Input
Amino acid sequence: MALPVLGAALILALWRARRTGTARWWLPALAAGVAMAAVPALVVPFKALLGRPGPPGPLADETGFFPSGHAATAAVAYGAAALLLCPRPGRWPRRTLLTAVALLNVGVGVGLVRRSYHWPLDVVASWLLTGCLLWAVVRLSRSAPVDESSEAAPASSNAPTPAGS
Output
């Protein structure tokens, strides 16, 4: 469910930014897409390198449980979607949406541990990885100006001129 949510948020964010004429309108969506693509690129090598066995349960004979790819995918997808839909920090809709995303991801993590698909540390490690990826999304998104008028403009003709010019 997380990937379709991110896909819809990407499309909506691109459409909104393009419609308003925002400079570098594609940058926040690209940053979110790259962060999502980085999840398997980072998680799969860790799983292969560590080969951690699973908790007692249906998958106990398997290896490669650290970190949790499911928890990382959900956290990046939902987190990036929230950042794209409410890009301005400090506003109550963004805080509310980010709180809802955090609670949703806690639910995903608890479900993975409760169903014996992962150890708690597998989920926590994924959240730490996710924090790094979402931080990069925020940093890259902030480098995109809100609109074209926020870019450096040439000196205005209304500026005071030095005496004697």
Summary: The first helix runs from residue 2 to 20. The mean pLDDT is 83. Residues 72 and 129 are 7 Å apart (CA to CA). The two ends are 65 Å apart (CA to CA).
